Known about the structure:
Elements: H1 3-7, E1 8-12, E2 15-18, H2 19-25, H3 29-39, H4 46-59, E3 68-75, E4 80-87, H5 89-98, E5 102-105, E6 109-110, E7 113-123, E8 129-139, E9 141-150, E10 153-162, H6 163-166, H7 180-184, H8 186-202, H9 211-214, H10 219-223, E11 231-235, E12 254-258, H11 264-280, H12 283-293, H13 296-310, H14 333-348
Antiparallel strand pairs: 1-2, 3-4, 4-11, 5-9, 6-9, 7-8, 9-10, 11-12
InterPro entries: Phage_lambda_Bet (IPR010183), RecT_fam (IPR018330)
Pfam families: RecT
Protein name: Phage recombination protein Bet
Amino acid sequence: MSQNNRNTLPKTRGLPMPATAQQSYGLSEQSWKVLTEVTFPTAKTPEAILMALDYCKARKLDIFKKPVHIVPMWSAALGRNVETVWPSIMEIQTTASRTGVWAGMDRPVWGPDVTKTFTGRYKDDNEQWQESSVTVTFPEWVAVTVYRIVGGKRCAFTEEVYWLEAYSTAGGKNSQVPTAMWIKRPKGQLSKCGKAASLRAAFPEECGYAAEEMDGKTLDDVVDGSVIDGEATHWKTDVGQAGDWFSGPTGQTPQVIDVSQIHPKVQKAVAELVRRTAAAGAWKAAYDYAHQKFKGIDLSFALAELDKVSEVEPKVTPTLQQNDNHCMPPLSAKDMAMNQARQTLGHAA
């Protein structure tokens, strides 16, 4: 029997049921079928469903009630969509309720209706780009008020969310065409975003971004620190021969990074490290720098981000000056020119 046969049980809906699903979560083949065909019918990989299972297990949630969504997000580094797991608005409300100080929520207040025609490209179910033009009537904004008990008093927290700023695009940042759900339910989707925003205002330490807000966004939004919640999966590759100099761990073990635990400043530092490394090709220097600069979960996050790009970029390490200090990979010629221009402008000012 092959290795794949030992680790994979019979298939349903084209998604193989990993042995982990049965061993770690006690799922039967019938339960896996429900997850793949009913709960998460758009999931592309078994690993995405395992991520959702991990989230629900840690939070003690019933996954069959769909407290989380699997959201495809575009990765500019990989040049493709990556499946991520984000809490639904129901899960965010559950989180607020568990604090014991959530004191209710008013019905949404709507702004005036606006009609607008969107034209652009989107990817169909076969991942092929299609031209589209659609006219949508939607509320300009929504305001939702959430109440929390603070110092024994019922306090109101209200946030306004604008449709044009919140709606999800079918083609990522390069498209203006709304997704099918935002076309079908323009008020319903905006209402969910309004609730999530107000719940974050009332419970900033407990509540994060909702799946409804992240649908159609890109992983760059997460790296930039504008979104600091949610989880993303990454499969480490066995670099064995060609990549023996990599400092990170190897093996086919999926690692889940909880981005909400990574400080925005760390995210920005890692994003800069990845950018400069990709430009200079200095992979060994980057991994050495990461081990010197970061610790704990920050180090795991940095290594995972470097791994993502190293899988698609040539693993070429230029000759670097040898010294005992760990430094950032060298700037590319373009970056050096930009820095020189900034310095010139600074002196002129």
